[in-house]
Predict the structure.
Amino acid sequence: MRPTAAGLLLCLLTGWLEGNPLEGRVRLVTEHADLRVVLAPEGTNLFQLAIRDSDRHINHPAIGAALMVPETARNTIPEGFAVLGSAASDLWILPQSQVPQLLYLGASGEGLPAGVIEQGLSIQLLRTEGPGDFMVWQSDAFEGILIRMSTRDGIDEADKLSLSVGGHAHFNWGLTANGFVTVWMQVQASVGLTNAWSPPTPILFAVEPLPSTPPVTPRISISRVDPSGAIRLVVSGTPGANYKVQESTNLSIWEDVLNVTGETATTELTLPPSGDRTVRFLRLRLR
Amino acid sequence: MTSKPFAQLPVVLIAVLGSAATAQTPTLSSGHADIGIGFEDGAFDLHVHDEDTDTEYTPSGVFLGVGAAAFTTTPAALSALAPIGSSLWVLPKDQRPDLLYLGFGTDELNPADWSGKISLTLTSVSGPGNFGIYDVGAFGNIQIQMNSADGISAGDKLELQPGSHGHYNLTFTAPGTYSIGLQASGTHLTDGLITSDTANYTFTVVPEPGTYALVGLGLVALLVLGPRKQS
C-alpha cells in the first residue's frame, strides 16, 4: 500500500548542517596538538580518534575542535619536490618542526595500555571533503621526503600514519587550497586475532583565508507532498554552495538522494516517492 | 716478561661498562623526559623533568641514556656533524619505545613575563666525541642548532618560545660519557636580562651492539683458555 501524504511521517533535520563549520568548535591555532588514539572499550568501537591539546592535556572530540591553518602557513613549492606538487604552486604547511605562529600537530599512541594492541596501530586516511589536495609527510635526514598520506594520487590502504603503542610522532601536514577541508580518518589495529577500528572520524582543517562571508545557515522545508508520495522541498542557503539531501529511516544509516547547487538563495526540488516507507527522515549536508 | 694478552680484556670490559650509572644516580633511557627551564626567585632553574613519572631532577641528579638503538652511520645530509659513513648516535625527535624521547621545555615560563625567546646556549662539551642538535624542515632542509664539531660559539643554541615545548634530534659521534654544558638566557619584562649558570647534563652513549659481542667473545675466550703462562 502506497503511503498517503497524511500517513507519511517526515522529519526534517534542518539543524544538522554546518552553517559555519567553526561554530561550536575549539580553534587550535598554535602550540602543540595531536591526533590521539583513545581506547574506548565501553562503546561500539574499541578506539576513538580525539584531537588533543597537548599543552593543556585536554582531549577534544574531533567534532569539537578545528585545526587552524593561517595564511602564514602558505609556502611555495620549490623545484625538485614534484611529490608534493608543481613547482611554484601554493602549499599550506603545518610543519613537523615547531614554529611559534603555527600549530605543531602530531599523532599520538600515548596512554594506550600495554598488551591490548598486538600490532599494526595506524590512522588510516578514508576520504576528504573540501577544496584541493591533502598530504602528510615526514622529512628525514636519512631518508628524505617520506609521504605518509596523499590524495594527489588517490587514496588507498597505504595512506596511513603508523604509530607505536606509547609512541608519538610529528609530521608535515599539507593542503593545496584555502577553505574548509574535512579529512576523514580511522584508527585501525590488530587486537588479538581480530582487527579493531574507530568510527570514521572527521578532522576539520580551516585553511585561511576562509570564506569572507559566513555561509547562510541552510534550511530545508516541505512545500507539499504529492498524492504519489513525491515530496516538494525548498532548500535555502548560500548561493553557489553545494548541498546534498540525505534520507534515513532510522537516523543511523543515511543515503544520498539529491544533490543541490542553488544559483539563488532558495531552490525548489522534488524528492521521488520511496515506495512503502512510512517514515522518512531528511537532512541537508554540504557536499 | 710474561705475555698476558687476555689480561687486557677485563680492563676493556670495565672501560666499556664504566659509563654505566652508579647505583645512586638513575638513568633515563626510555620514555619521555625534558630538559626543563623554570624561573624561580629571579633566576632560571635548569633541570630534567621525567614526564612519565612527573619527577624532577637536578642536571647532576640523573643520567640521560642513549641506547644502542640510536646507533647509525652518518648520511650525507649530516656531514656537518660527522664524516659521512662514520658512526653516529641519534636520539630522534620522534618518540620510539626503545629510546629516550628527550625534549626541551619552557612550559613553566609564562609568555606574558618575557620579551622574545629564551636562548639555551651550548657552553661546553666534554666527552669522547662531538655533540650536535639538528632539525629537518618541511622540504628536507637540515637546520643545525648546535654542533661542537666546528667549535663552540654563541651560535650553538636553541631559541625556545616561553611556555612551549619542542623536540629535536640529538647526535653523538662516539660511545661513552658526555658532559654537555647548557646556559639559559632571556629578557624578563620586570627583571631585565637573566642569564643562568651553566648546567652540566650527563649523557651516557651505549656502544653499538657489535662492540658487546666482541667483548663477550673475548671474555668467553679468557674463561676457556685462561691466561697464558710462560714456560
Remarks:
- Chain A touches chain B through 29 residues (CB under 8 Å).
- Confidence is low (pLDDT under 50) at residues 1-8, 14-18 of chain A.
- Chain A has two domains: 9-19+215-286, 26-207.
